[in-house]
Amino acid sequence: MTRRTYDSYTTEDGTTYVATYSGKRTTRDGRERDGSYSITKINPDGTSQTLASERGGSASKNKSLVSKTFDQLKEGLIAAEAGENLSYTDDDITPMGRSGGFFGLGGDQDSTLTLSNGLTITSRAGKTGDEVKTIKRIADEIVNTKAASTATTTTTTTTTNTGLTDTSLTDGPSPGGGTSL
Questions:
Q1: Is the distance from CB of 81 to CB of 71 less than 8 angstroms?
Q2: Which residue intervals of the chain are DSSP H helices?
Q3: pLDDT tens-digit map of 57-101
Q4: Are 113 and 92 in contact (CB under 8 A)?
């Protein structure tokens, strides 16, 4: 199975963020390969950086995981480009591991980071420490995104009013005028 693109977003400065995923597959030599997902940042100069990734799972599971995190990234980037001043501190991070259920074996829970505007970024990518690094990388991308410039067109209308009246065609000798023709 090939990698599929879930979504992409390009900021005004030309930086592109791409979310891709794949499912489990069998190679030509018969070996099983896990599926995966990733969110990649592609800079305007062509260099790239992986912001989030995880290996394992079916195509539908990986699509679900990447879509959740990517949609939060995209929402944050749109808010930052709209001029919202976004921030976070380490107190805004909630690291989660296995919790709940029978003997605390309820499964892995998403680690979260809440930005100053209330947007919550989540990740379940790997161990808790990796999740925290992932959500901080994504939050840093959002926080460091500059507001989009706005093009303003100004129309100026100039009206000249000299306050003079043409009285040259009036009858009689009067100031500014003479005899009419």
A1: no
A2: 59-81, 128-143
A3: 888 988 988 999 999 999 999 999 999 999 998 888 888 654 544
A4: yes
Structure tokens at 43: 């800079």
Per-residue pLDDT at 76: 95
CB 63 within 8 A of CB 39: no
3-state secondary structure of 52: strand
Quote the strand ranges of 11-164, DSSP E. 16-22, 25-26, 32-33, 36-42, 48-55, 93-94, 111-114, 120-123
d(C-alpha 131, C-alpha 126), whole Å: 6
Asked if residues 19 and 8 have their Cβ atoms less than 8 Å apart, the reply is: yes
Q: What are phi and psi of 41, to 5 degrees?
A: -100, 125
Count CA atoms closer than 13 A to 145's CA, side-chain side: 32
